[in-house]
Amino acid sequence: MSESTRAMSRRGLLVAGGALATTVAATGESSALARGEAVPRGSRSGDGADRARIDVHHHFTAPTWVDWAEREGLVQRQELLWWARWDLDSTLALMDRAGIATAVLNPTMQDRYRTAAQAREGLTVVFEAMADLVAQHPGRFAVLAPAVLDHPEVTTWALRRAFDELGAVGVSVKANYNGVYLGDPSYDRFLAELDERAAVLFTHPLDLPGGTPGVPTVPGIPNFMCDFLLDTTRAAVNLIRTGTLDRYPHLSVILPHAGGFLPQIATRMEAFGGFCTPPLDAARVRDHLHRFYYDTAGPSAPSGTLVATAGADRILFGTDWPAASADIITDFTVPAIETDPVFTDRQRRGIHRDNALRLLPALRRAQGLSR
Question: Which pick of 98, 103, 168, 317 has the fewest CB atoms within 10 Å?
Fold first, then answer.
């Protein structure tokens, strides 16, 4: 079954939040974080002073890739859901409305290739599309390298091209492949390549292993409501259990959706970690919880638990566009940060921008900043 059908149940959220970003207009937002900030070059209109956020959770399905994939028989255009119908005009409108300076493009649907040769051809289409966007809209977009773990040699080639030719700021990978979660030894070759580059790994969940893609595990409850968060949580706990961040000390990992349930079960892990294999002591759990990064895509719950678990300097702004609609982003995701009393103004600026620039220095080049 196609990945486009896996998110079928998310349509309700889209409708509830407002489906069409093409109808939005820039709001001229002027939050404290934007005042005095270096202005990104390459703004579409105006002086860009109202755009300062960096979106690290932005799904990108290149229209040219859809054309290619349809010719190859990998997708059927009429079956694609909203999150796979990325277009430039609605994206720039959303970015302006939400005060986003730069979106980090995370290529979707890159696990459909039948052969290594087809994977290389499809990735070439994706890379060309991302390169064109970066060139045509300076400062507005940065790119992630997609991992195609079913084809290790292609992944090595893709990493080389993405980092060395396109200036990728990180790598995208799913929380699990065929039920095998990040942290398993089968990922070692891939993670060793990333560690050599001191790369940042962006994870993302899907349906839980063992279920039917696109079919709710619990009737009436879309899988993205709970199962996606558990998928992320399983990957994070497995990374802690296997000591992956110790074995690859130059690797950084971003957990989406505020880390799934990880912050909420932090104390539980400290108390019951001894039942894992190998056993986890409380100090090790606390240390690793502070070594992940967490994005705000969701929207997430009030942030006190996450700040207490990881620290505000480990939180990054993310939207989940276009899976999350423009109205969800502007009515829930952005206000959740702006109005949450747990954050100081300095911490808000860090979440919106400075934490990402510190973690991903290549973003400074993407934004045309010299400092």
Answer: 98
User: Could you report the per-residue pLDDT of 119-171, keeping only the tens digit for each?
Assistant: 999 999 999 999 999 999 999 999 999 999 999 999 999 999 999 999 999 99
Burial 295-325 (b: 16+ CB within 10 A, else e): bbbbbbeebebbbebbebbbbbbbbbbbbbb
Q: Which value, in Å, is the radius of gyration of the alpha carbons in the chain?
A: 19
Domain boundaries, the chain: 3-19+42-366
Least Cα distance to 96 among 39, 43, 133, 139 occurs for 43
Q: Which CATH architecture has domain 3-19+42-366?
A: Alpha-Beta Barrel (3.20)
pLDDT (0 to 100) of residue 369: 63
pTM for the full predicted model: 0.85
Bridge partners for 104 per DSSP:
142
